[in-house]
Amino acid sequence: MKPAPFEYARPESLDEAVRLLAADEDAKVLAGGQSLLPMMNFRLARPSVLVDIGRLPELTGLRREDDVLIIGAGVRQRAAETSQLVRRTCPLVGRALRHVGHRQIRSRGTVGGSLAHADPAAELCAAACALDADVVVTGVGGRRTIAATDLFLSPYETSLATDEILTEVRVPIRGNTRFGFAEITRRSGDFAIAGVAAALEFDDRTATGARLAGLGIGGTVRRLTEAEEALRGRALTAESISAAAQAAADSASPPDDLHADPATRRAALHAAAQRALEQVAHD
């Protein structure tokens, strides 16, 4: 199929991009286009104007400021995946990105675009929640910061206003933290039936903090608080891993759709949680 008719605009600044969005509530931001353009081709999305922000210098760059990793929203996923800075400070980002589609997709798709798209099976969305990341957005009213856990409202819906653009991701860098990421798919590159991103902080061998986020198990990615509670204050052993994986599966109310029934998704979530936490144990 072909998309419905639309106009195209390529602003030269972030301020101009925001003004274009504010002028038309049916305008959409185009970053990498790896999610939006297929939806347009199937006419699931019918924007009146595409506002192309792919070349705005304000949205590029990877840097560290004190104990925060800052990723520009326009950074290509492949660049973040292979970045030595990301690998040193927050390897969970790279581990999650390796599961996003195929390399060609990651070479065009952007970090901010994935978060703003808010796919319930998006690996970066789950990683952002597990990392306690914040996103900075810019609109006609200025800049504001949103916690990643407050960004995702429902499938493909976020708490961004129609005139706001996600401009950067801010990830806290914590010491004594280990990471894991796993997902269950039918084929490599497919959307996940279920997946888990995990970040655990340790004092000696005891998990003093646990943050797990699940993907592919409902209307949005979400924190797996029951599994987190099963891990806090305990050593990461085969028994505590098994208990947390079971708690994650028991807490899920996954959809029944053409990809998997609820029982299959719960089993996949259990397996993904087990694998992610085993990675943490060996990190």
TrEMBL record:
Residues 246-255, 265-274 have a biased composition (Low complexity). Residues 1-176 form the FAD-binding PCMH-type domain. InterPro entries: CO_DH_flav_C (IPR005107), CO_DH_flav_C_dom_sf (IPR036683), Diverse_Substr_Oxidored (IPR051312), FAD-bd_PCMH (IPR016166), FAD-bd_PCMH-like_sf (IPR036318), FAD-bd_PCMH_sub1 (IPR016167), FAD-bd_PCMH_sub2 (IPR016169), Mopterin_DH_FAD-bd (IPR002346). Keywords: FAD, Flavoprotein, Oxidoreductase. Pfam families: CO_deh_flav_C (PF03450), FAD_binding_5 (PF00941). GO terms for molecular function: FAD binding; oxidoreductase activity. Residues 246-274 are annotated as: Disordered. The keyword Repressor does not apply. SMART domains: CO_deh_flav_C. PANTHER family: XANTHINE DEHYDROGENASE SUBUNIT C-RELATED. This is Carbon-monoxide dehydrogenase medium subunit.
